[in-house]
């Protein structure tokens, strides 16, 4: 017997306007989209120390009743245990495909976002360092920022991405988008009629890439090349995000304006 | 068409052309697409290739990662994927990402981090194929790199100890094997009747788990419970690599063994039946033995009457 979803469920992420980075914003938006698709209300709470509050060190995390769950994978399982699931209608082969595509997005898109914001020197200097430590006073902001950068660069080196150039990374993003575009085809969602967690994940990443202004527009250009992907993002935004109260929709649009080069 | 291409990679054992997943992937793809590749296995000499293994050398071009090597082969018109639709090509990328994320950590752990496996199998094998004194250093370095990679990519909180990380990666690997098995179903290859890039990658990852004899084999045991994946590996080995144990193709050897077994069973059954019949015969009341010899000795007399009685 599943407990009912409480009214005061909260999703924690970093500060939307000043602090949150591309990859974290993508993950957070994916979870928000997923919960919207399941019709589970959740309010978004922005905290500067969200990353440290999270049980796994990654944002976003949700606080439901007396449980705290972070990251899309565990959240999907948690929601399933509560009795809500988007992928019940899929057969075994389709479920395998869905998991494979989710890994593709994590493997390529998320890693490319991390590369861009932590290993690409210009972006690091001009966007990431100022944003990441912005709620904290000097010198804490620089120390935290460098610490995180060192951590991410170590991971990139271990998986072999440290030696890649930006062009190679963009090519990988292009390949990934091409695969997603071909899989989506002309269908409204990846598994035809009903959205699943894969749709939420893809929406989170692609929408963030499309609406975030970085040093160059090359990343969003790669996504814009595929019209069915932009149409997909627009469709999900209209269906699941503009139906909400006005402030969140204006925030979604405002985010795109605010996400410019900060000094 | 193209200049002769040479591939440097780790050699094989236990019926495999190579023990290294990436080398196996490239070799399998070359066989599937018909690319003429001379394979040089790394041996004790000092001709160590530069860069990560496997390395493809064609004229002056040196290419090192499997994805890049496969791209190069495709550009040289050795394409195993030309029959695939766009969606199937996308599926290929997705499943390869699944293999990398879920199966590779457990594979690396089985080979390089699990202490018993590493000390008794992996280290001696690799050390015997690397020149001294590099053989003292390189296996250790590969082991440390493997552990590092596993911990960095999978070892964050809430998993705090190595045993928890290990438990998680093996769970993920078993789930991945189940997913692969479900996707393969009963077909011979992943996309129909001809093998493609995805088959090369899956084979490259699965075959070492399947064939190499380790002391600690939880992944192999799980794989053996998925008969369609085992059949998939065996098929590729027999059709494309033709490596056999004792001169028979493994499939032939199996049928010979099966036939032998059946024959033995039949013979045993027959002999059991015959024994039973003998026993029955001995136990049942026997008619008195015929005194046929007496017949010849006596011309007539009393014995003739029994003879007359006995003969019809």
Automatic annotation (TrEMBL), chain A:
Its main location: mitochondrion. Residues 174-236 form the Metaxin glutathione S-transferase domain. It comes from the Eukaryota. It holds the Pfam family GST_C_6. One of its GO terms (cellular component) is SAM complex. Keywords: Acetylation, Membrane, Mitochondrion, Mitochondrion outer membrane, Protein transport, Transport. It is found in: Mitochondrion outer membrane. Involved in transport of proteins into the mitochondrion. Belongs to the metaxin family. This is Metaxin-2.
UniProtKB/TrEMBL annotation, chain B:
Keywords: Membrane, Mitochondrion, Mitochondrion outer membrane, Protein transport, Transport. Residues 23-142 form the Mitochondrial outer membrane transport complex Sam37/metaxin N-terminal domain. The keyword Protein transport applies. The lineage of its organism: Eukaryota, Metazoa, Chordata, Craniata, Vertebrata. This is MTX3 protein. GO terms for biological process: mitochondrion organization; protein transport. It comes from the Eukaryota. Residues 278-312 are annotated as: Disordered. GO terms for cellular component: SAM complex. It is found in: Mitochondrion outer membrane.
């Amino acid at each position: 017997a599943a407990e009912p979803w409480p009214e005061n469920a909260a999703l924690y992420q970093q500060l939307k306007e000043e602090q949150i980075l591309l990859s974290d914003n993508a993950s957070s938006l994916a979870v928000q989209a997923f919960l919207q698709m399941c019709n589970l209300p959740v309010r978004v709470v922005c905290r500067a120390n969200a990353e440290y509050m999270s049980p796994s060190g990654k944002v976003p995390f949700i606080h439901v009743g007396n449980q705290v769950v972070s990251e899309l994978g565990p959240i999907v399982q948690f929601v399933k245990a509560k009795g809500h699931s988007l992928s019940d209608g899929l057969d075994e082969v389709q479920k395998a495909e869905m998991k494979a595509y989710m890994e593709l997005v994590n493997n390529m898109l998320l890693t490319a976002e991390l590369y861009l914001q932590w290993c690409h020197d210009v972006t690091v200097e001009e966007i990431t360092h100022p944003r990441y430590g912005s709620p904290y006073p000097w010198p804490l902001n620089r120390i935290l920022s460098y610490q995180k950068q060192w951590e991410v660069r170590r991971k990139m080196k271990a998986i072999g991405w440290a030696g890649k150039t930006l062009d190679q990374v963009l090519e990988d993003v292009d390949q990934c988008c091409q695969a997603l575009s071909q899989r989506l085809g002309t269908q409204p969602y990846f598994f035809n009629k009903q959205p699943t967690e894969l749709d939420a994940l893809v929406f989170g990443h692609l929408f963030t890439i499309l609406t975030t202004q970085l040093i160059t527009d090359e990343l969003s250009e790669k996504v814009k090349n595929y019209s069915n992907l932009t149409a997909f993002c627009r469709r999900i935004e209209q269906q699941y995000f503009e139906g909400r109260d006005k402030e969140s929709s204006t925030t979604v649009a405002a985010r795109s304006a605010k996400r410019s080069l900060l000094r | 068409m193209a200049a002769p291409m040479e591939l440097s990679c780790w050699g094989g054992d236990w019926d495999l052309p190579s023990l290294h997943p990436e080398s196996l992937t490239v070799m399998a793809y070359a066989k599937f697409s018909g690319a003429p590749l001379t394979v040089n296995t790394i041996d004790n000499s000092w001709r160590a290739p530069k860069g990560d293994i496997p390395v493809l050398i064609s004229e002056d071009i040196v290419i090192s990662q499997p994805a890049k090597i496969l791209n190069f082969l495709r550009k040289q018109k050795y394409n195993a994927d030309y029959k695939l639709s766009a969606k199937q090509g996308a599926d290929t990328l997705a499943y390869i990402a699944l293999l990398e994320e879920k199966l590779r950590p457990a594979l690396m752990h089985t080979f390089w981090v699990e202490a018993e496996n590493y000390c008794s199998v992996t280290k001696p094998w690799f050390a015997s194929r690397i020149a001294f004194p590099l053989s003292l250093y390189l296996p250790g370095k590969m082991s440390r790199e493997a552990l590092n990679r596993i911990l960095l990519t999978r070892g964050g909180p809430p998993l705090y100890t190595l045993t928890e990380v290990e438990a998680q990666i093996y769970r993920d690997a078993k789930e991945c094997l189940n997913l692969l098995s479900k996707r393969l179903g009963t077909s011979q290859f992943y996309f129909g009747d001809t093998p493609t890039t995805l088959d090369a990658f899956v084979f490259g990852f699965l075959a070492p788990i399947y064939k190499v004899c380790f002391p600690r084999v939880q992944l192999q045991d799980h794989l053996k419970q998925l008969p369609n994946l085992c059949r998939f590996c065996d098929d590729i080995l027999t059709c494309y690599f033709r490596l056999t144990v004792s001169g028979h193709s493994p499939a032939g050897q199996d049928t010979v063994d099966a036939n032998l077994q059946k024959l033995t069973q039949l013979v045993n059954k027959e002999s059991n039946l015959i024994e039973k019949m003998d026993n029955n015969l001995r136990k049942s009341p026997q008619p008195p033995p015929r005194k046929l010899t007496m017949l010849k000795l006596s011309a007539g007399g009393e014995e003739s009457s029994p003879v007359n009685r006995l003969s019809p």
